[in-house]
Structure formats: structure tokens, C-alpha cells
């Protein structure tokens, strides 16, 4: 019984390996051999053959692009490259060859996207760590006072920072963003900074108050300044939301610069992870492809 089963399996394999083959000798031979092959195929198999040929055309384009000086591709059309690929192959051989490419291309894409995600995650951690150090120059209070400015009383933005960096600070730049509390839209944005003489550096645990006229657009956003009770710490009735953070901090040892783009990195990682999941669900077979005319 075992011998009969082995002989039957061998016969099936032999039968499958036989049948019409494609000639890639030239275009005329290719068309003629393809017509003979298609005459023995079902409608579904004809579609699979067409899918396989299109997949292999994509393979030819990819390989010629990656290896333009390779003797197998240089000076040859995509059709000629494909005919060389499938010369002497049966229908099942062409299908297997195309699906092998689909699987290999899928696996390569999975590896590349995994590497890119790892790289972006490493970059994100590095940026977050550096920005966290900058945040040790800590904003502890935001208020609006009324001060004289060119002979007129005007609202001033006062930002109180405390030096928790464990070292003396020689200077800093602050990013100020002011939004509409109701809409979330930005009203005004500005970067400002100051510096200290070496012998007047801001000591560890010391406070520094950055004070400047309220940004013009923010001042114009409300008409309540004349009747306001100063100092103001609740900005909601003025429809304002004030954000401020250190952009750069210079110590005696180094200059630290805040790096932006964390949100973009998060979006890119999320997008790549979605693509990765889709790739992992792909089998790399022709039945996953849709034949378009």
C-alpha cells in the first residue's frame, strides 16, 4: 500500500511538471507558446497566468531599477526580462515563481518597516530624554500684570521659571504660544530670550521672571484689559490659553536645544505599524490580487 501511494504521488508530481511551457526565445515564440498554454487552462487559471505575468513585470522593473548595470537587465526591455525569467516554465512554475517574488517582497517590506519603526522609536526616546532635561528649567507661574510701557499702562506677560537643572544657567530662550481657549486656534506666537553675565548666572534653585508686553494679537483679542483686576492668573474670561516652555538653555557646560517633531514621529510610527500589520496578514499569493483590465 505504501509503495502504491508513493507511486501515485510521483505520478501526480510528474503530471503537474509536464504540460505546455513558455518560450522566452523572442516575442513571437512567447505569444505562440502562451496561446498553446492558455488553450489548456480554465478561466480562473488564465486570470492567474495574467496576474503572474504582471507580478513578474513588476519584479523586472524593480530589479532593473536596483541593478541598472547588471548584464541581465542593461539595455533590455521589461518584456524581454520577463520572457527570460519564465523561459521553459510551465503554468504552475510561472505561478510559483511569481508567488515566490510576492512572498520575498512582502518579507523584505516587513523587515524594512520593522527597522524603520525601531529607528524612529530610538530617535523618539532620545528626543524626549533631551527635552525632559530642558524641562528642568521649570515654568512655575504664568500671570498678566499691568505696567508702564512708553508712558501708557499696558498688560504684561510674566513668566516665572525656577532653575532645577542642578547647574548655573547663562541664558535661555522661551517659546510663547497663545491660543483662543474657545477654538484652540493660535492667536500669537513668539520666541524670546535673555542671557546673564558669567558672574551673574542663574544659580541652581533660583527663580527668574521673564516679563514683556503681552503679544499684540493676544492683547487685541480681548477688550477687557481696561477693567481687569491685576495680576491675572485666570485667562479664561479673556478667551486666552497661554503656553510657554524653554526652547534653549545654556549652562557653563553646554547649550541644550529643544527638538520638535515628536507628534510627527508618533504619527509616522502609527502609520508604519498599520502597514506592518497589513503586510503580516498578506499570504503572498495571486488570489489576493485583483486583475484590472
Would you summarize the structure shown here?
Residues 262-292 form a coiled coil. The protein has 293 residues and is α+β, with helices and mostly antiparallel strands.
Provide an overview of this structure.
It is built from 7 helices and 7 strands; from the N terminus they run αααααβββββαββα. It has 293 residues and is of the alpha+beta class. The chain has 2 domains: 16-134, no CATH class; 137-258, Immunoglobulin-like. The strands form 2 sheets. The protein has a 4-stranded antiparallel sheet. Helix 3 (43-66) packs across helix 4 (78-86) and helix 5 (91-134) packs antiparallel against helix 7 (262-281). The longest helix is centred in the middle third of the chain and has 44 residues, at 91-134.
